[in-house]
Design a protein that fits this description.
Helix content is about 25%, strand content about 45%. The protein has about 240 residues and is α+β, with helices and mostly antiparallel strands. The protein has a single domain, classed as Uncharacterised protein PF07273 family, DUF1439 (Bactericidal permeability-increasing protein, domain 1), CATH 3.15.10.40. The strands form three sheets. Strands 1, 3, 4, 7, 8, 9, 10, 11 and 12 form a nine-stranded antiparallel sheet that branches. Strand 9 and strand 10 form a beta hairpin. Helix 1 packs parallel to helix 3. The radius of gyration is 24 Å and the shape is elongated.
């Protein structure tokens, strides 16, 4: 009974923080660039289409490097005090799960282990748990950039009753969404084509017309559709006579 009452109290306090993050967060923080990327059209012509294949091992190699050679990702929660960090830290593993990227049924999943603390009027509230999340893709044609969007589905806290867990879920979701998203995956400089052709005395340029993506064979397959154009030097006077 005492455990339930303490859990309920924590839930009410965190619920207040939840309300702050949802309704008082910075204007425009939920605005994500571009539009969701559609799956490839099997009937579309493949001329001018390049495919970029990124296996799960690629993403998990990036995560492994971050955790081993850099500091773990940290996101502020409320205010920091002398005895409370006021932050959520993403961990390489914890609560029985490993932070990783996986592909399943054409969906990109990303379980996230974390620990955190919040400086409440009742003292420092510390918690650990993991978040079940998925990963969406967006393309912004104005910058020709592919972005990732982390979507937290639910949160499981260690040693906390389901009622409190239901309250904390949108709290953690809001924190991760506003501080993590958008995630830049490929930008226009990586996708651009500007190839000098010396024999033709010009350049071969390619403008991106569209970007499609799908999860296939345990890898993220990104299709980039180009429109090619050539720019060259004006013909010499003797060549025009």
């Amino acid at each position: 009974m005492r455990r339930f009452v303490i859990g309920l109290l924590v839930g009410l306090v965190v619920g207040g923080v939840l309300t702050f993050f949802i309704f008082v967060r910075q204007p425009g923080s939920a605005q994500l660039p571009g539009n969701p990327i559609a799956a490839p059209d099997p009937n579309a012509p493949k001329e001018g289409t390049a495919r970029i294949v990124l296996p799960a091992e690629f993403f998990n190699g990036v995560l492994g490097t971050i955790f081993k050679e850099m500091k773990p990702p940290v996101f502020a929660v409320g205010q920091k005090t002398s005895d409370c960090e006021g932050q959520i830290t993403v961990l390489p593993e914890g609560s029985g799960v490993r932070t990783a990227i996986a592909f399943d049924n054409n969906t990109i999943t990303a379980p996230l282990a974390f620990s955190g603390s919040y400086a409440s009027p009742f003292g420092c509230l510390r918690f650990t748990g993991w978040a079940k999340s998925n990963f969406g893709l967006r393309y912004d044609p104005s910058t020709q950039t592919v972005y990732g969007q982390l979507n937290v589905e639910n949160v499981t806290l260690d040693g906390v009753n389901p009622f409190v867990n239901a309250i904390v879920t949108p709290f953690v979701q809001s924190t991760l969404s506003t501080r993590v998203n958008p995630i830049r995956i490929l930008d226009g400089r990586q996708l651009a084509v500007d190839l000098p052709v010396a024999a033709s005395q010009g350049n071969l340029n390619a403008a991106i017309k569209d970007v499609r993506a799908e999860v296939k064979e345990n890898a993220l397959n990104i299709e980039v559709m180009y429109g090619f154009a050539g720019t060259g030097a004006a013909p010499a006077a003797s060549e025009t006579r």
